[in-house]
Amino acid sequence: MKRREAIDKLTGREAYIDDIAIAGVWWGCTVRSAVPRGRIRDIRFGAEIDWSEFVVVDHRDLPGPNQVAMIENDQPVLASDRVRHIHEAVLLLAHPDRDRLREARRAIHIEIDEEPAIFDYRVPPPADTVQHGGDNVFKRVRIDKGDVDAALVAADHVVEGVYETGAQEHVYLENQGMVGYVEDGVVTVKGSMQCPYYIHAALRHALARADNEVRVIQAATGGGFGGKEDYPSVLALHAALLALKAERPVKILYDRDEDMAATTKRHPARVRHRTGVTSQGRIVAQDIEVLLDGGAYVTLSPVVLSRGVIHASGPYHCDNVRVEGRAVLTNAVPFGAFRGFGAPQTIFACERHMDVIADELGMCPLGLRRKNLIQDGQSTSTGQVIRDGTDRIEILDRAVRDAEFHQREAADRAFNSTHPYLRRATGIATFYHGAGFTGAGETYLDSRAQVVGLATGEVEIRTANVEMGQGALTTFVKIVAEKLAVEPDRIRVAEVDTFHVPNSGPTVASRTSMIVGRLLERGCDALCATLGGDWTGDKFERELLRWHAEHPGQELIAEVRYEPPPGVEWDDERYEGSAYGTFAWATYAAHVEVDLRTFGVRLLDFVAVQDVGTVLDEVLAAGQVQGGVVQGVGWALMEECQFVDGAMANHNLTNYSIPSSDDVPPVRVVFYETPYAHGAQGAKGIGELPMDGAAPAIVNAVARATGARPAVVPLTPEVLMRVMGSA
Amino acid sequence: MSNTTTLTLRINDEDVTVAFPTHHTLLEVLREECRLTGTKHGCELGECGTCTVLVDGKPMLSCLVLAAEMDGHEIRTVEGMMIGNTLHPLQQAFADLGAAQCGYCTPGILMAAEALLEANPDPTREQIQEALAGNLCRCTGYIKILEAVEWAAATQRGEDTPPAKESIYGSPHAATKGE
Question: What element of type H or E holds A257?
Answer without folding.
Answer: helix A256-262
